[in-house]
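note to self — DONT lose this again. spent like an hour looking for the file last time. sequence + predicted structure for the chain T wanted, 208 res
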Amino acid sequence: TDTGDVCLNRVQAVDIRVETETGDVDLRDSVAIDSITVKTESAYKEYDGEPLTNPAWSLSTPEMLMEGDYVEVSVTGNQTDIGSAFNACLVKVYDAEGRDVTYNYDVQKDSGILTVNKITLGITSYPETVPFGEIAQNNSYGADDFALLPGHVIANVVISGRQELPGTSPNTIDSVEIIDEATGENVNEYYNIVKTEGALTVEQSGFG
């Protein structure tokens, strides 16, 4: 330039060479340019014992690449157990000749989240209505058995609802125990148990 300064464009820079006694030196690989951002996508599911992955990714700032450069991304994130993890990735940048020029870039990662949730299992205590003078009590229940993982069974459901006087109260579900049938181990940790409590009703006396 007129002032002697050299301006290196982050987008338009191509081969930059300085002639020395021993030959040309390629300065392309030593030019620091602006950031590129690689975004990985999120995913979620209920626990099934299999790894959750999502290989989708995108380059949020393709305009920041120097001419001829391209990005290769290996998405490595996975989540098997209940919980969450970043959808991690490995990023490499190559030039038109296949040389690794990743160090020319400040690589930023916008990582998605992989989330494995507990399995939703519905348990419903059944209602009961009785005439005045009787006790409303019902230990029967229904369950979304289809939601259970193979080998898992409902071992015990404790229902304590009881209505003696005229009126209505919930048929309370105190606890639910799910076990692995083969080992007898409690596996409640894999389930989000949703309780729906029926109504226990004792009808009013026929006398005002």
